[in-house]
Amino acid sequence: MSSHEEFVRLQAEHYGALPAGEFTSVEGYRLFLMHCRAYEEVADMTRGKRVLDLGCNDGYGSRIVRSAGACVVGIDASERAITKARSAGGGDAPSFLVADATYVPFAEATFDWVVGLHIVEHLQDCDTVFREVKRVLVPGGRAAFATPNACFRLDPGTPPWNPFHVREFRPDELRTLLEKHFACVKIKGLFASRSFAAAERRRVDCRRLAARQRHRPRRSLRTRVKTLLPRTVLDRLRKIRDRLWGDPWDDRAAPLDAAALARHSRADLEYRERGLEDALDLLAICGPEESRAHASE
């Protein structure tokens, strides 16, 4: 087994499916909303088209695009995810196949659109995948790629804290990567309501701080004290902290109930073309030169 095949296997086996409707935290629910919003943005542009969904996970996004009127095929390297996607059934459901994005099992010029939402950050070999995308696109076909915004998530020059991400991109880096393969690249940013953005900022800052501490040669005094205290004492101290100084939007202490899930919706999210450095995620719409007039649709 080659190193690439081993990498794909590990990603497929250990990177969990997004739990559509089976959330264990409000934080997970917000992430799901962000992913769904990307598919909704694409669905508006792909009505009546033949669409390939790369890295379709359990098919939640493929179904969003299909419900808007596209003919959709989803592929994913995870047999578990594809099994779950197929189990949703329905006579008008998308088709799903187990396949690696570096070798798409379709003939040239099969699809009008190829959608790869939140897969770019997982790829070891982006160039091979983009060549496959162009191969299966019809002349004049277009592609869409969503990915986390490194400006929002990472300290400058640091690797991703998500262990399944090979690389995360700033807007200019994403544009440079895609313009090697596509004549026209239009990038939008995902922005959120104030409360939603603040909650996502807390999540990202928490992960980034943990990553900083892991790379420090010596642990801080605070970290060393926490390792000595019993978990029951730590939990009690956290509850006191949250009661005295807690943020009413802090999901770490919030019960996962109907009220918590109702706090946010896809209506909290929108795509804009300016201020990309502050966006939560990035969405690139790519195509040939003649599609330039349509990229802003």
Walk me through what this model shows.
This protein is α/β, with parallel strands linked by helices. It contains 11 helices and 8 strands. It has helices at residues 3-14, 26-43, 60-67, 79-87, 126-136, 150-153, 171-179, 194-215, 221-228, 231-245, 258-261; strands at residues 50-54, 71-76, 95-98, 111-117, 137-148, 184-192, 269-272, 281-287. An 8-stranded mixed β-sheet has the order 3-2-1-4-5-8-6-7. α2 packs parallel to α3 (60-67). It is globular.
How does the SSE layout of this entry go?
Layout: H1 3-14, H2 26-43, E1 50-54, H3 60-67, E2 71-76, H4 79-87, E3 95-98, E4 111-117, H5 126-136, E5 137-148, H6 150-153, H7 171-179, E6 184-192, H8 194-215, H9 221-228, H10 231-245, H11 258-261, E7 269-272, E8 281-287
Parallel strand pairs: 1-2, 1-4, 2-3, 4-5
Antiparallel strand pairs: 5-8, 6-7, 6-8
